[in-house]
Amino acid sequence: MKFTLSWLRDHLDTDAPLDRLTETLSAIGLEVDSVTDRAAPLAPFHTARVIEASPHPNADRLRVCRVDAGTGEEITVVCGAPNARTGMGAVFAPPGAVVPGTGITLKIGEIRGVTSAGMLVSLRELGLGEDHDGIIEIPPETRPGIPYATWAGLDDPVIEVGVTPNRGDALSVRGIARDLAAAGLGTLKPWAPEALHGPFSPIAWKNETTGCPWVTGRYISRVKNGPSPDWLQRRLLAVGLRPISALVDVTNYFAFDIGRPLHVYDTDLISGGTLTVRRGRAGETFTALDGHLYEVTDSDVVIADASGVVGLAGIMGGKSTAVSDTTKNVFVECALFDPVRVALSGRRHQLHSDARARFERGLDQSLLPAALDAASALIMKLCGGEPSEPVSAGAEPAWRRSATLRFERLNSLAGTDVPQDEAVGVLERLGFALQSRDGAQITVAVPPWRNDIAADTLLDTGGQVDHGRAIMAAEGAGIIEPECDLIEEVLRIRGLDNIPPLSLPGVPPVPLTVLTPRQTRTALARRVLAGRGLAECVTFSFMPRARAAVFGAAPETLRVINPIAADLDQMRPTPLATLVQAASGNIARGYADTALFEIGPGYAEGAQGVTAQGLIAAGLRTGFTPRHWQAPARHMEAMDAKADLWDLLAALGVPMDALTCTPDAPAYYHPGRSGVVRQGPKTVLGYFGELHPAAQDALGLAGHAVGFELFLDQIADPKKKRRAPPDLALFQPVRRDFAFLVPRRVGADAVLRAVRGAERTLIERAAIFDVYEGDNVPEGQRSLGVEIVLQPRERTMTDEDIEAVCSKVVAAVNKLGATLR
Amino acid sequence: MADDIETLRSLTLAGVAAADDLRALDALRVHVLGKSGALTKKLKELGTAPPELRRARGAALNQLRDELSDAVDTKRAALERAAIETRLQSERIDITLPPSPDAPGSIHPISRTIEEMAAIFGAMGFAIAEGPDIESDWHNFSALNIPSHHPARDDHDTFYLPGIGNGAPRVLRTHTSPVQVRTMLTQQPPIRVIVPGRTFRADHDATHSPMFHQCEALVIDRDISLAHLKGCLIDFLRAFFGIATLPVRFRASYFPFTEPSMEIDIGWNRKTGEIGGGGDWLEILGSGMVHPNVLANVGIDPREWQGFAFGMGVERLTMLKYGIPDLRAFYESDLRWLRHYGFSALSPAMLHEGLAP
C-alpha cells in the first residue's frame, strides 16, 4: 500500500516529522517497505527566467542566456537547447549540482570562449522523463528561485507499507491515518460527505446470491469525461496507478483514500435497465478491463446485464460497459461482496486487482452510502452531471458486535502492567466505542471497518481431539479470542518495545540433558562421519523420478503433484540417491575424488500407501585415495564403505559381535561386492558396497563409487547399565598364528566364529591378518591367516596348555571343511 | 712409584688415546685390565713383593687400576658418541616432504546452526521435537488457524502430494509449525520445545530455495507472557551471535497462528553486513502469543493455558552469523564450499566453549 505524505495529511492533522511517522508505522504493524523522497535529488534545481537569449559569438547552435535564478545576481549560461529564448521560464542548476539523469556534477565552464556558470535543464536530465526536445519550459510569470520540486509538486514523499492480511482497513490512507492518530501522532480529521439526492435511477439492482449481502449504486447523467486534474493524476502516479480518465481515476482514488473499491459503468452500454448480482453460469465468458477473456463458473459471483456478464464481482469490471471519452451517463457501483468468494474467484482466475485485495480482506460494512456520496460528489466536481437517488439491493449486514477486555488478562498476557486509562484511550482512538467500564474490565463496540476483531471463530479440531475436550476448549476460545484481539490492539499501538523483557522462568541453574537418545545418536553419527573425512551435505528431499526409481520404487503416493521443476517430482527413497547427484556435480567440476555423507530422511511407501519416513545416514566415496609418496593411490573399494559403516556402528554402541553380513544388498549395489548388515536374524541396520555399474550408468556417475546406508531408526537405545570393571589380567597374553585353506564359500566371519568358539575362556581375540589366493592354493579355496590372542587367567600357560588350545582351534575350523595349511 | 708401574701407566694411557674404535679399546682393556692383563697380573704378584714395600705398591696398583678403568670408560663413551654421531649423519630425511594427507571431513553449516540452537534453547529448558515432512492439510494449515480460504495460504506456495486412499491431498510442510500441533496433541502443558527441520515451498530464486530449514519454538504454561517471549528471544539472539549488547527490536505484525504477533529485528550495518551495530535494522524472525483458536483446535483450553511461539529460518541465521552470501550454495554440495564453510567434527557446539563465530 502506497500513499504520499500530503495525502496522509488530508486525513491526519499532525506535525510529526516524516521519520517519526515511518518509525511509528513500522512499530505498530504497518511495516514501512520504502520511503521515496523524490525531492531530495532535485534540491539544487530552482525556477528561473531567461532575461535574454542571444546568439553565441563563436557557435551557430549555441545561445548565451542571461538568467535570473532568484539569487539577486544575473547569471550567464551557455545553452544549446533549440527552445531557449528570451523571456521564457526555465529550471536552473548552479555549479556543484549533481544532474540526476546523467550523474554529472556541474562546474563553471568556458564554452567556446564564453563562461557558463550553470545549466538550464531538460526533464530527462532531471531523471523525470524521456523528453529531450529541449529545456523545461515553465510559465514565464513564475517567480525565479522557487525549488523546482516544490513548484512541480514533487516534494511529497511516497511511503509504502506492507499491510498484513488481517488489516483490510489499512489498505486505505484513512485507515493508516487512524492508526497513527491512535499511536499519538496527531488527530484524525472528520470525514462526513454530504448526502446527495436526485430523481430516480433508470438503472436498478437485482441481487440473486448470498455472495453479496448489500449492493448500492447511483446514476449520474450528462457527465463529461476527460483527463483528471493534475493533483489527482499526481497522487495516482505516486502510488503506482496510471491515470486513465476522470471517471476511472475517481474510483481508483477512493480505493486508496478510504479503501473503498467502486466501479463505474457507461449506462448507455448496459443492456436493459437492471444489473443483476448472481452466480456465473457454465460456459459464460466476459472480457475484463485487462483485455483478457475469462470463463466464469457457478462458484463465481458476477454482475450481469441482459446481455450477460459485465463484471467479476469484487475483482474486475468488464470491457463491454467501460466508460470512455464519449461517455455521457454513468452508473456508480458500491457493493459488499463475500470476502471468501472474492478470494476463491481471484485465485481460480489468477486475477489480481486493488479491488480484490480489499474485498478479500474485508471492507467497512457500513460505509456504502457515504462512500457512494463522496465518489458521486467528486465525479460531479470533475465531470459535471446530475445525480439520481441511490439505488440498492440487499441490506446493511448485521456487523455490530462487542468485545470485553479484562485488565488483569491484559497484564498477564503482556507480562507488564498497562495503565487502564492508556488501554482505554488506545481503543477509543482506534474507533472502539466504550459500552461499559468498571475497575476490572471494559466492553467496547467493534467499529465496522475492523472485520478482524471478535470475528466469527472458525475452529477445526480435525477429528484429533475428543468431543468433551473440544467443547471446553472451544468455549474458552470464544471468550479469550475477542479479548486477545483487543489486547493485541492495545499492545501494538502502545509499542511492543515498551514491554520490559523477562527471561524464561523455571530454568534449572544447570541445564539437564536436552537430546533424546535418538537425537544424540544422530549428532554422534554426524561427528563420526565427518571425523572419518566425509563432508556433510544437505540435499533436497525431492529428485527426478527416473533416478529415484534406480534406488527401488518410485511410488505414486510420493510424487509431488506440483513440482517446482519437472526433475524435482519424486520424494527420495534414500539420501544416497541425492548424494550420487552431489558427487556427479563435484566430478563435473573436476573433483573426482569425493567423500560425502548426509543424515536425512528417506521416504518409502508403507502399508496401505501410508508414507514411512526414516532417518538414514548415507555415505558415498568416489574415485581414489589421495596420491601420496608413501603409499600409492588406489581406487575406492567396497571395504572402504564397510569401514565407514563399521566405525559408525561401533561408535553408536551396537554390539559388533552380534552383527552378521549377508550378500543380499538391494539391486543398486554390485551383487558380488556389497552386503546387508543385520543385528539378529531380522533387524536390517544397513547396506554397504560398490554401486552397481548399471545403476551408475543410469545415474550418470562415472568412476569407482562405493556407499553405505545406515537406518538410524533401527539402532536400539543404549541400556542404562553400569559397566562391569575391566578385565585386567595379571599374566601376559600369548599370540599364535594359523594359516587355513578355506573353501571360497566359507566366509571369514564363520572362520572367526569357529575359532572363538573353540575355547571361550582363553581366546580373547581372533583376527584375520592375511587373505591369499593364487599360487600354491588349490582352485576354489583361499588361505586365511588367523591370529589368536590367548589370555591366561590363573597361571602362565605351558607349551602343553597352548598346544591344547591350538588343537581345539584347528579341529573347530576343520569342521567348516578347512584345513591347516 | 716403581718404574714398572709408571711405564704401564703411560703406555696404557697412550694406547687409550690412540684407540680409534671400540674394538681396539676393548683389546687394550683386556690386555691391561682383563683377567690375565698386565695390571691384573701385577696385583696378583703383590704377595711376592717384600713386605715393607707391599703396602705402598698395593695402593699404587689399585690407584692405577682405577685411573686406567676411568680412562677406558671415558674413551668408550667418547667413541660411542662418535659412532652414533656418524650414524645419525647418514640418517637424514627431507623434513619438508608432506606428511600422509588427512581426510578433511566437515559438518554442514545448517547442522551446526541447529546444534547451536539446541545448545542454547536446551539451556533454557527446551526439548527438541520432531515431526514428519509430509503432513495433512489440517496439521499444516487448518489447525494453525489458517482455513482453506485464508489469504495467508497464498503466501505459502505449497507443494502437494496425493492423498492416501480417498483422502485429501497431503502437503510438504511449509513450516515447522505442524509439529507444534503434534506436540500439543500428545503432551500435556507445560510444554517447552524447539522444532528444527526441513520445510518446503514452491519458490526458487536467489533468495528462495524449494527446500529450506526452520526452527520453531513453542512454550505453553499458565503464566507465560509476551515479556517472556521477548526475554527468551533476546537471550537466544545474544547467545547465538555472541554479542552481549546485540540490539533487538520488536514490531507488531500478523500471523494467523499468533496474537499478538511480532516481527523481530536485530541491529546491523547494512553496508558491511556486520551484526550488532551500525544503526540499521534487519528483520530476522516472526513470533507471537499462541492464538486462542490454535489452542482450542488441539483441545487446550485457552482460559487455562497461554504461551508463545516463534519460527526462524535456519539458513538465514547461518548466513548472517557466518557471512555466507548465497543461499543456493547450501544445497549444491560443492566440496570446495563444504570445506570452506564446514565445521570440524571435533568442535561440537558447546556453551562453555562459546558459540561466537
Structure, briefly:
With 821 residues, chain A is α+β, with helices and mostly antiparallel strands.
Detailed description of the structure:
- The complex is a heterodimer of chains A (821) and B (357).
- By secondary structure, chain A is α+β, with helices and mostly antiparallel strands.
- Helices cover 26% and strands 27% of the residues of chain A.
- Chain A has six domains: 2-38 and 156-188, Phenylalanyl-tRNA Synthetase, Chain B, domain 1 (2-Layer Sandwich), CATH 3.30.56; 40-151, Beta Barrel (OB fold (Dihydrolipoamide Acetyltransferase, E2P)); 204-394, Phenylalanyl-trna Synthetase, Chain B, domain 3 (Phenylalanyl-tRNA Synthetase, Chain B, domain 3, 3-Layer(bba) Sandwich); 405-497, Phenylalanyl-tRNA Synthetase, Chain B, domain 1; 517-714, BirA Bifunctional Protein, domain 2, CATH 3.30.930; 734-820, Alpha-Beta Plaits, CATH 3.30.70.380.
- Chain A contains 19 helices and 40 strands.
- In chain A, strand 34 (669-679) and strand 35 (683-691) form a beta hairpin.
- In chain A, helix 5 (230-238) packs across helix 6 (246-257).
- The radius of gyration of chain A is 42 Å and the shape is elongated.
- Chain A starts with a strand and ends with a strand.
- The mean pLDDT of chain A is 93.
- Chain B has two domains: 3-90; 109-343, Bira Bifunctional Protein, Domain 2 (BirA Bifunctional Protein, domain 2, 2-Layer Sandwich), CATH 3.30.930.
- Chain B is built from twelve helices and ten strands.
- Chain B has helices at 3-18, 22-33, 38-44, 51-90, 109-123, 137-140, 151-154, 178-186, 226-241, 292-297, 314-322, 335-341; strands spanning 127-128, 134-135, 160-161, 170-172, 191-200, 211-221, 248-255, 258-268, 280-290, 306-313.
- In chain B, the strands form two sheets. A seven-stranded mixed beta sheet of chain B has the order 1-5-6-10-9-8-7, with helices on both faces. Chain B has a three-stranded antiparallel beta sheet with strand order 2-4-3.
- The longest helix of chain B is centred in the first third of the chain and has 40 residues, at 51-90.
- The mean pLDDT of chain B is 92.
